[in-house]
Design goal:
Blueprint (H helix, E strand, L loop, with lengths): L1 E2 L2 E2 L12 E8 L7 E10 L8 E10 L2 E6 L2 H7 L12 E2 L2 E2 L2 H9 L15 H8 L22 H33 L5
Antiparallel strand pairs: 1-2, 3-4, 4-5, 5-6, 7-8
Length: about 190
């Protein structure tokens, strides 16, 4: 991957058409009699887009009938605590978290749309989630909050902070993807 003079060497990956690990079913407890949770972890090219993608999803059934499914991360974290450390990688692929730079700029507020509502950009928590912030010890050395868009600071300040955010994101990508590879392989999956 080459982005503006920044050469990033991503870990080698072997393309896998289908690679799934299933967990469960586990009872959701006495207060939810008959309800069971299954979790599924996959890292493969099921979509056929040329790179392996990682996902953790779940399915809740009651007496064999599907009640809910998809990103049931809170339930998975509670009932399959061994999977909790890997949820941060949901929708990451061997070339990075989904739309790594674009989503980061969006949640930092540097894409133009900001309506001032609580879950709208700029949103530090959504930004952190999008870029898997905290997965590297050096993340703590970068003041991410200082790179959020600010109406009060003007165009030039925001343009510079947007460029610095992009540069920082690219400098951490290689180490972040090495950590991702280790996590995928620790689950017994082919990277």
């Amino acid at each position: 991957m080459t982005t503006n003079e920044t050469e990033v060497k991503l870990p080698e990956s072997k393309l896998v058409k289908s690679q799934v690990k299933k967990y469960g079913p586990k009872s959701l407890g006495p207060d939810r009699a008959g309800y069971y949770l299954r979790a599924e972890v996959r890292h493969d090219d099921e979509c056929g887009n040329g790179h392996n993608s990682f996902a953790i999803t779940g399915e809740i059934t009651q007496f064999g009938k599907i009640e809910s499914c998809g990103c049931l991360h809170e339930e998975i974290e509670e009932h399959f605590p061994e999977l909790a450390p890997f949820i941060k990688w949901h929708l990451s692929s061997t070339d990075g978290p989904m739309h790594y730079l674009a989503n980061a700029k969006y949640w930092a507020g540097h894409c133009g749309w900001r309506d001032g509502k609580p879950n709208s950009p700029p949103n530090l928590e959504h930004l952190k989630s999008t870029i898997v912030y905290g997965v590297l010890p050096a993340d703590a050395d970068f003041d991410l909050a200082d790179h959020l868009y600010s109406d009060a600071r003007g165009f030039t300040w925001n343009e510079e902070k947007g460029r610095r955010l992009d540069a920082w994101l690219m400098t951490r990508l290689e180490a972040m993807m090495a950590a991702f590879k280790l996590d995928v392989e620790s689950l017994g999956l082919t990277y």
